Amino acid sequence: MTFHIWRIFFWIKGQDSYLFELFIIRLSNSTKSAVMRSLFYAIVTFLLLISCNREIKNTIKISGAAQGTSYHITYLAGQHSNYREAIDSIFKKIEFSLSTYNTGSIISKINRNDTSVIIDDYFSDVFNKSIEVSEKTKGLFDVTVAPIVNAYGFGFTKKEKINEALIDSLLQFISYKKVRLVENKLIKEIPQVMLDFNAIAQGYTVDVLASFLESKGISNYLVEVGGELRAKGKKLDDSSWTVGIEQPNETNAAGASLNTVVKIKDKSLATSGNYKKFYIEDGKKYAHIIDPFTGYPAKNNLLSTTVIAADCMTADAYATAFMVMGLEKSKQFLSENKDLNLEVFFIYDDNGVSKTYTSEEFKENMELGI
Predict the structure, then answer these.
(1) Could you give the number of structural domains in the chain?
(2) Lowest CB count within 10 Å: 73, 100, 185, 197, which one?
(3) Is residue 308 part of a domain?
(4) What is the pTM of this model?
(5) For the chain, where are the alpha helices, taking DSSP H only?
(6) Does the residue 137 lie in any domain?
(7) pLDDT tier at 41 (50, 70, 90 boundaries)?
């Protein structure tokens, strides 16, 4: 008995390929036709089942305004997987917990010494990470700096006339050691202590949004809120997610130039700097990043700090902490705390010339030609 081998190759766009080897025994023409029809219908049915179970991915983009800034979310999913409504709901929930500009939020009530307030998971997550970073940086990152941030006009109360006496009077209220969580309540040592999560809340929001997407089975995405971001997987064309790091420019001119471009995969990135949020009064520059020990804006040669970490809340907090530390202290901190696995890109001023410091791990993801 003789037989033929037929090889049939099928490919579904954006999915897998299938190779069928059909062993056809020499039969009569009528029997052979019946067998071929049956095989054809079987293969078509198989391919239809594969197509139904494997939804072709699309690039979905969602953007808008929230937390006093803009956000952009891009992910790969089926055409019926637009989660804008759910994402808007997440923003509202976080605002109700962490926004000092929402007078009804949990943090606002705590700042007003409302002892009936019960904290939620959003608040406890951010508070605990803040204390962790404060302890690690020996207080150079401190969310209790709110009274001084307010005095400079960068917070949630009216700006005051800055002078040495005012700053000295407010410093006594600044210390992360003056607050603690006891079960689901925040306890203050003195009522004048206030909290401000602005140096960490956007990074945390990115993490919450990313976790939401992953809960929906999405494994390829880029989430960005106010310049803080997290990326996982790849783009539709199988290329890496890339992010530009802006060259500091105090003029706030449109179309700011990029200093470098970096590839991000399964990590988070945050950038901090004093070149956008500042004002000049009586010939002095006042920027929004405050040194918790002096009560004055951090003053050193760092222009911007970019940090890559496993989660965006961590990257956000340390980017701010490094701006307070300055270049040399930041380098020393990184050397002594390699367990944190932080990758950094610093832009600093060297006698009027903009220079950069890049950690070895960060260099591996930088793109050339910028």
Answers:
(1) 1
(2) 185
(3) no
(4) 0.84
(5) 29-53, 84-98, 106-111, 121-136, 146-152, 164-171, 201-215, 312-325, 327-336, 360-363
(6) no
(7) low
